[in-house]
């Protein structure tokens, strides 16, 4: 069936658009004909890249390999595959990243609490206790131990907590020790602050009211879906 594959030029090369409603067998045959004709017409022997778009069809690895075998040679290369389909695995991963893990507990010395994505902890982290998350960490309570956000290298993560006491904060590979022992602290004051990595890749402690200005993307999550 003709019209199952269309070609669109871009600055990076070409888009190969395969109709999602078409038979893949028809698409393979049309790809063979299309690329064969392009090879005959091509006088400038330079590398040409193809970005394959399949719409509402998710190709298997086997199907991708068949297309690669048809298209690629010394000059024709496939740079990527793209579909409009979201796999179950990707949905689960996005949900974990967008929805904070809620923990209501006390983290005592020697204990470690971990989360994929963001963590919301309601409780106290005692000295020697550790909380870790691949995203940001929000603690409603006192942090006296260690909080490690962005454990997989996400430096945009933050740690929000009551820093009334000595604590250690890590974001990615950056480490900062919060020391309060030499400061006069008003027992009635709200000492909730947040820790972040600035543009110079240095950890800073800032007032909570500055969080939105410094990390506006944190406001782009709603109902587990990223709205950025």
Automatic annotation (TrEMBL):
Septum site-determining protein MinC N-terminal domain location, by residue?
5-81
Name the Gene Ontology biological process terms. cell morphogenesis; division septum assembly; regulation of cell septum assembly
Q: According to the lineage, what is the superkingdom?
A: Bacteria
Which Pfam families does this one have? MinC_C, MinC_N_1
Positions of the Septum formation inhibitor MinC C-terminal domain: 105-198
Keywords of this entry: Cell cycle, Cell division, Septation
User: Assembly and interactions?
Assistant: Interacts with MinD and FtsZ.
Q: What does this protein do?
A: Cell division inhibitor that blocks the formation of polar Z ring septums. Rapidly oscillates between the poles of the cell to destabilize FtsZ filaments that have formed before they mature into polar Z rings. Prevents FtsZ polymerization.
- Family statement drawn from the similarity comment of this UniProt entry: Belongs to the MinC family.
Mind telling me what this protein is named? Probable septum site-determining protein MinC
Q: Which organism is it from?
A: Alkalibacterium kapii
